[in-house]
Amino acid sequence: MNIFKTVKIKKIINRTFEISVLLKAFFGFFEILSGILFTISDRFILNNFIILMAQQEIAGDPDDIIAKFLIKSADNLANGSQIFAVVYLIFHGVVNIFLAVSLLKNKIWAYPWAMALFSGFVIYQVYRYFHTYSLSLLFLMLFDIFIVFIIWLEYKRKKI
């Protein structure tokens, strides 16, 4: 049985696709903005600000997972990850927005390109994850895997 035969399934896949691609574009905008902010900000000021905010949380709850994550992220920025973060965020953001707009305009060529490029990003994210063990990178990687899957479903549906 073809899962695309029922109207309800088609609508769910299409709606999930549209929302996911819009989220990808939205994240792309914030990735570009974050990359620009990292470029113009002093990493030590940013590092100290993050640590200050997290320490207030830890004072209230010493086992606060989010505060500990923020401190670890700030340490990574202070240890030279800033250049990688800037380049990655801006490039990833531009690609996300360009492909998201193309997908939402139903450009058939964009489907295989998006799947290939997002899969490439996932491979690189896996590599970076095993060097940094960054939770934010892990979540980005899982979201990109989901996006590739939903793009594949929508592409397959359009070709039927």
Can you tell me about this structure?
This protein is about 90% helix and about 0% strand. By secondary structure, it is mainly α. The protein has one domain (about 15-160). The longest helix has about 40 residues, at about 65-105. About 20% of the residues are buried. The mean pLDDT is about 80.
* Percent range of helical residues: over 70%
Profile the largest sheet: none
Count structural domains. Answer: 1
- Helix/strand-derived category reads mainly alpha
Give me the count of strands: 0
Mean pLDDT: 82
String of helices and strands: HHHHH
Overall morphology: elongated
Distance between the termini: 14 Å
Helical run tally: 5
Pfam family, one: DUF2127
Protein name: DUF2127 domain-containing protein
Organism: Candidatus Staskawiczbacteria bacterium RIFCSPLOWO2_12_FULL_37_15
Transmembrane segments: 21-40, 83-101, 108-127, 133-153
Could you give the topology of this structure?
Elements: H1 7-40, H2 43-60, H3 65-104, H4 110-132, H5 135-159
Helix pairs in contact: 1-3, 1-5, 2-3, 3-4, 4-5
Kindly summarize this structure in a few lines.
The protein has 160 residues and is an all-alpha fold. It has one domain (17-159).
